[in-house]
Amino acid sequence: TDVRVYWRHRAANTAGDGTTGAIHLNGERVDSIAVSDGVGDTRSYYLTIDNGDIIDQVVTPVGVSGNRIDGSDGSANWMRIDTKIPAVPIQPNGKYFLPIDTPDIDGDSIPDFIETDLLGEDLTQLAAGSDWDADGALDEIEVTNGSNPTIADTDGDGLEDGPELETFGTDPCNPDSDGDGLNDGDEVFGLPATDPDNADSDGDGFSDGEELEAGSDPNSQGDTPLSGTLADSVLSFSQTQKQAGWESGYRNVTLDGGGINYDHVADFVPFPAESWRGAGWRLAPSGAPWTLLEAENSHPNGANSAPNEEHWTVRRWTAEGLDGESAVRIRWSTSKTTPNGDGVTGAVHLNGERLDSAVVSDTTGVDRIYYANISNGDVLDLILSPQGQTSAVDGSDGSANSMRIDNRIPAVAIQPDGSLFIPA
Fold first, then answer.
1. Among the four residues 98, 142, 342, 392, which has the most C-beta atoms within 10 Å?
2. What is the pLDDT of residues 253-285, one digit of tens each?
3. Which CATH number fits domain 232-406: 1.10.10, 2.60.120, 2.40.10, 1.25.40?
4. In what order do the strands lie in the sheet with 379-385?
């Protein structure tokens, strides 16, 4: 029996990153949407089902940014199943739904409603064994697979439907078949070319999109985004201070006189040994001050919280093992884990001088690259301050941040402000 699954999903609490609503048939996902607003979406999805088949409507914590963190995830949804199939049933992804026993007067294996919807009443335009759009895929093959037999490149990804179906095994209705962040056409014709049907062409654990963004070779297992890494705040996080050059601490802005820049020697306070709480560093075992550093989680303290002092958390790496002055790439990120509140500031400092910063108030946050010339003994700090969009009041300032330093310098290195970086 052909049925319509008429369903809605929306946010009941709009303060967070949202949730994902989805429809499953016998446990297999057939339709989904992520929403973060109170309007959401009402959709129709068409299925052919039999007695005993199970249709589930689910809600997951995955928000519009892909973040799985549960924060203000209250949602509302409903689902109705009926047999209201329109004359031209089209799925939410743009593909035609093919009902049981749909008329095919000319017997060309192409439902008449598709032919008339695309080309009018002349049923001779499309035919079995023909290729109307000359894309290398027969008309009936395109209809079966959901692509448009009158458009050579249905999804506009730069790779025609014929090669997608006949050569590469990709989805002609999805511009990024393997979900690696690269269009299928860019993967086939790019330099370097990658497999459009394999998110990780070289099987090294990093997607092709991640590798190209990082500057590594997506076709070589020996060259990954971690190749050339000098320091990684997540991988090297430890309760042992100065391990691999890393220290965890904070800056007491209230006591040291304040200002964006600071004395990197006098104003850095390493967490004392007794502040290790099993998973990370925290000044107080519970309650204020909220000053906390874990492998990725971080929380500053505002002057509105006991002991009425502003604390910036600091992830510090001291350069070592360099061959003289060296150019490095600093990739750093900051995002909120608690989407409420006015936000926080993430920043990178070199020997106490601010290089780059961003104010963040959502769970998407920022992922930035800054280039610098450094020498052995130089200190790079990734700080988190309670300064938000309008004030430095600490309220719902739970965040996550990380910093990785490597020597991958592109031929033309552009700073976040658009200026050209000149390597040492």
1. 142
2. 999 999 999 999 999 999 999 999 999 999 999
3. 2.60.120
4. 269-270, 246-252, 311-318, 379-385, 344-350, 353-360
